[in-house]
Amino acid sequence: MKMSAHGPDPGELKMAGEDPDPGDFYPTDRLGFNANGLAWLKSKVIDDDCGGLWRIHEDLYDLTSFVNSHPGGKDWILLTKGTDITEAFETHHVFGVPQKLLDKYWVKKATKPRKARFTFDKDGFFKTIQRRGAVILKKSRGRQGTQGI
């Protein structure tokens, strides 16, 4: 089996009767992650290659001027600068984020595909569960206090 800098060559990984599996991305300095979370974030900045911007899906944003306005606090935004935050964005914003807010910070389209294989298709598994969960959360919490969820 051929090996690349990131593990097995994806073209070599095959399931019986299926197209080659792209394989999981082998992160930079993976063995140092157990030292602390900041080591993981440092490696993620290298691997995600977002040019100092924040990536959500296929778009790059400059959230610098939004840091102090973020309802969830500024720490997370500051820590993730230069990374792909798609999964965290999707899982922490159950009720969505207004598109006009995102548009305010949009810089450009990403030029490279995402490294993560997770999808957030409108009618896919995650979005379906998220919509159902939002209904339950609204009922259990009422309309008050749900903006930052």
Could you walk me through the main structural features you see in this protein, from its secondary elements to its overall organization?
- The protein is an alpha+beta fold and 149 residues long.
- It has five helices and five strands, in the order E-E-H-E-E-H-H-H-E-H.
- The protein has helices spanning 37-48, 74-79, 86-92, 99-105, 125-141, and strands spanning 3-4, 7-8, 54-56, 59-61, 106-109.
- The model is unreliable at 6-17 (pLDDT under 50).
Task: Summarize it.
This protein is α+β, with helices and mostly antiparallel strands. It has helices spanning 37-48, 74-79, 86-92, 99-105, 125-141; strands at residues 3-4, 7-8, 54-56, 59-61, 106-109.
Strand order of the largest sheet: 3-4-5
Name the helix and strand elements from N-terminus to C-terminus, one letter apiece.
EEHEEHHHEH
Mean pLDDT: 79
Tell me the major beta sheet: 3 strands, antiparallel
What does the oligomeric state look like here?
Answer: single chain
Name the poorly predicted regions. Answer: 6-17
Query: What distance lies between the first and last C-alpha atoms, to the nearest angstrom?
Result: 45 Å
What is the fold's blueprint, element by element?
Blueprint: E1 3-4, E2 7-8, H1 37-48, E3 54-56, E4 59-61, H2 74-79, H3 86-92, H4 99-105, E5 106-109, H5 125-141
What tags apply to this protein structure?
single chain; 149 residues; alpha+beta; three-stranded antiparallel sheet; two-stranded antiparallel ribbon; 5 strands; 33% helix; globular
